[in-house]
Amino acid sequence: MNTRTVATTPFNDQKPGTSGLRKKVTAFQAPNYLENFVQSVFDTIFDNAAAPPGCTLVVGGDGRYYNREAIQVILKMAAANGFAKVLVGQGGILSTPAASCVIRKYGTFGGLILSASHNPGGPDGDFGIKYNIGAGGPAPEKITDAIFARSKTLTNYRIVDAPDVPLDQLGSFSLGAMRVEVIDPVADYAELMESLFDFAAIRTLLGGGFRLCFDAMHAVTGPYAKEIIERRLGAPAGAVINGVPLPDFGNGHPDPNLTYAHELVDIMYNADKAVAPDFGAASDGDGDRNMILGRHFFVNPSDSLAIIAANATLAPGYAKGLAGIARSMPTSEAADRVARKLGIPCYETPTGWKFFGNLMDAGKVTLCGEESFGTGSNHVREKDGLWAVLFWLNILAKRRLSVEEIVYRHWAEFGRNNYSRHDYEALPSDAAAALMAHVKGQFGELPGRSFGRYRVKFCDDFSYTDPIDGSLATGQGLRIGFEDGSRIVFRLSGTGTEGATLRVYLEAFEADAARHRLDAQEALGELIGIADQVSQLRQRTGRDKPTVIT
Ligand code: VG1
Ligand code: CO
Question: Please, how many CA atoms are within 13 Å of residue 379, restricted to the half-sphere of its CB?
Answer without folding.
Answer: 26
